[in-house]
Design brief:
With 411 residues, this protein is an alpha+beta fold. The protein has helices at 3-38, 47-50, 110-118, 146-149, 162-178, 195-206, 229-233, 238-248, 274-281, 305-315; strands at 56-62, 65-71, 81-87, 95-101, 122-126, 131-132, 135-136, 183-193, 212-216, 261-266, 288-293, 323-324, 328-330, 333-340, 345-353, 365-368, 370-372, 375-379, 386-394, 399-401, 405-407. It has ten helices and 21 strands. The strands form four sheets. The chain has a nine-stranded mixed β-sheet with strand order 1-2-3-5-4-8-9-10-11, sandwiched between helices. Strands 12, 13, 14, 17 and 18 form a five-stranded antiparallel β-sheet that branches. Strand 1 (56-62) and strand 2 form a beta hairpin. Residues 1-39 have low confidence and may be disordered.
């Protein structure tokens, strides 16, 4: 090659790289402009990369469970590892799988993973606060304090935020167990509790490989009403608040959920009130079920039978929950059509409250409702305003509810 041809080749190479860089930057700019115009979040989570099984170290198996440490996302430029417990039934499988997402103050719960393993599932419960059983890990990600979740950031720093790391850790856990020979990768679900329910509401909208999702308590629209609104979200500068909501509130992701999803909460939940909860489940376009129960206790409780039953109905051939249509209130009567599972109904009730004010303080009551074929009907009390919903109990004792509605004065 002559000096001239070598120079031309080098120049063409530099031009080609520059052109690719320009195209790449132009594409990213167009993506950012489109996201801003539609108020959609930028694609923080690279599913092509996160769908690959992470590097992992498995400890010795004791009973049904073993410790696993797997590769996490870089945090402030440094590599991280995620501590988890993996449990599986005895035998070769293939087993359905579950990814288990803890809430605030929680960690990787061994007993939660064992709960699912005893039910015939391979399950992974990971820590989402940068910890291991011995304390904070030197190679862990961000902690899960409120100061960390709601800290100041700009979008170039978004991948150091707790929500980004927690969602990524759950997606990587999915990719890890899906790569194992004893797991049926076509039958894997996700469930989370409290902040884990918040995360599950995002995860199900980002990772479309999941076949079923159950957020317990947690939801979106935290900026409209939640225990964090007044002290954490409202004080944010407007631009920061808009970025946090767009990137990290589940309201941005729930419309993207594709798998069947069950929302489980209580009428008086201290953190996730019923107005934000309704906005959340009504954002979902995929098949959804609702179970809002009177004064359901809030905690790291993974033994709600309805969660097991719903997951089984999708992943393990179990009986489906009754499927309700939209409740209608007319002429002093509330009614709902049971679109599927009417034969499974054991009883029905009207849940209602005449109280107003903070959702957490309202007193809810229950009256029997009538089952007439595939219809459930209830005559309304005379109190106004009245907040109400219809609830059905199936033959397994699972309670499914309609959406709640408010009947105003004069109606």
């Amino acid at each position: 090659m002559t000096l001239s041809s070598a120079h031309n080749s080098s120049w063409l190479g530099r031009f080609h790289v520059s052109l690719l860089s320009f195209v790449s930057l132009a594409s990213l700019s167009a993506l950012a402009i489109r996201a801003a115009a539609t108020q959609e979040p930028l694609p923080l989570w690279d599913m092509q990369r996160l769908s690959a099984a992470p590097r992992a170290e498995f400890g010795a198996r004791a009973g049904l469970v073993q410790e696993v440490r797997y590769e996490g996302e870089p945090f402030n430029g440094k590599p991280t590892r995620v501590f988890s417990y993996y449990a599986r039934p005895d035998g070769k499988g293939p087993f359905p799988g579950m990814v288990l997402v803890h809430g605030g103050g929680g960690t990787a719960f061994k007993d939660w993973a064992v709960h699912w393993a005893k039910r015939g599932y391979a399950a992974i419960a990971m820590d989402l606060a940068g910890r291991s059983p011995t304390g904070q890990s030197p190679d862990g990600g961000p902690d899960q304090s409120d100061e960390t979740k709601f800290r100041q950031f700009d979008e170039s720093d978004a991948r150091n935020m707790w929500t980004y790391h927690a969602v990524s850790a759950a997606i990587r856990a999915h990719s890890l167990i899906a790569s194992l020979p004893e797991v049926d990768r076509s039958r894997i679900g996700v469930t989370g509790i409290s902040w884990g329910g918040y995360l599950t509401s995002i995860i199900a909208g980002v990772d479309h490989r999941f076949k079923v999702a159950v957020p317990v308590y947690g939801c979106g629209f935290l900026h409209e009403n939640s225990v964090w609104k007044a002290n954490r979200i409202d004080p944010m500068p407007a631009e920061l608040r808009e970025s946090w909501v767009r990137l990290f509130d589940p309201s941005s992701y729930l419309p993207k959920v594709r798998c069947p999803i069950l929302f489980l909460n209580g009428t008086n939940d201290f953190a996730y009130p019923m107005d934000s909860y309704k906005r959340s489940y009504e954002s979902v376009r995929a098949p959804r079920s609702i179970s809002v129960q009177i004064r359901l206790p809030h905690g790291h409780i993974w033994t709600f039978p309805i969660v097991d039953a719903f997951v089984d109905s999708v992943l393990a051939g179990g009986l489906p929950l009754p499927k309700l249509g939209r409740m209608v209130v007319r002429d002093g009567t509330a009614s709902v059509t049971v679109e599927d599972g009417a034969r499974l109904l054991l009883k029905a009730h009207l849940y209602f409250t005449a109280d107003t004010g903070r959702w957490q303080e309202r007193k809810w009551e229950s009256l029997p409702a009538r089952i007439e074929g595939n219809k459930v009907l209830a005559d309304l009390p005379k109190d106004r305003p009245l907040t109400l919903m219809l609830a059905v109990t199936d033959s397994q004792g699972n309670i499914v509810t309609s959406q709640h509605e408010i009947v105003a004065v004069g109606r």
